[in-house]
Amino acid sequence: MPTAATVIDYRRRINRVMLHVDRHLDRRCRLHDLADVACFSPFHFNRVFETCMGETPHRYVHRKRMERAGFLLLTDRRRIIDIALDVGYETASAFCKGFKTFSGRSPRRFRDTVPTHWFKKTNRPFHPAAHRRNRSGPRLTARIRTLPPLMVVYRENRGIVNGSFLETGLRSFRRLTASLVENGLDSGVQAYVGIYPFRFFSLEDLTALSYTGAVVDDRFPVPSHMATVVLPGGRYAVFSHHGPYAFLMQTWNAIYLKWLPWSGNTLRDAPPFETYLSAESPADPLQASAWVFIPIH
Known about the structure:
Elements: H1 4-23, H2 31-38, H3 42-53, H4 57-75, H5 80-86, H6 92-103, H7 107-113, H8 116-120, E1 143-147, E2 150-158, H9 166-182, E3 189-195, E4 209-216, E5 228-231, E6 234-242, H10 248-263, E7 273-276, E8 289-295
Antiparallel strand pairs: 1-6, 2-4, 2-5, 3-4, 3-7, 6-8, 7-8
């Protein structure tokens, strides 16, 4: 059984590969090239990647290309061949065939019929209808909880840096906690949360929207000048994440690709979120813990 230090090292290498893929979607991403980025043999890399991410490297690259293509089709009026070249296809016909196989619609029909706001929502994962149910590696265990509506005092953030919301999130949490203290709300905080209402299409997207907030006991009146939002009550599948926050993206990926397809659950129209024990990152990243809440029917 690998030690905690080995697992952290493996996950750090997988993060490196995720960034490499994101920056090179317009080029060939061959298995041995990705293995070199991670400093693994191709065989070992394939197994480690699938265990961490819930899908093989090949499927991951293909899905990221299709997601980027879907975003461009809805937000960029360039010709389909130009979008095909942006996501690594050499001909429009090969791209159209691949996109239709993946999404069930041709690129032109997708552009004409899919609402942009629907596609951008986090609770609408863009996965192939016949995605293979992956049970390899450690099985993800969800705890199903029914929550009441949660009132959250929040700050809006923009930007994802090096594949993580960590940098912008910690900066925002420092400002939020100062504001909570200033307004006498710090003793009423029940949990700190990160809310992700929209999907992002690049691991270095400086416009990616997220919210950092605090669930505040309703016995503490919140001043009108502070922004608040109510997270909908209802059923949530809850997953624990232990270790550096920088690897939370891998946990999210595995949830959507490894747990959701065979769980029998469907996503509810509510934003997913994370909760943390503290607004600060622990001095020892190995001691960090977070919980991911996925809204389900």
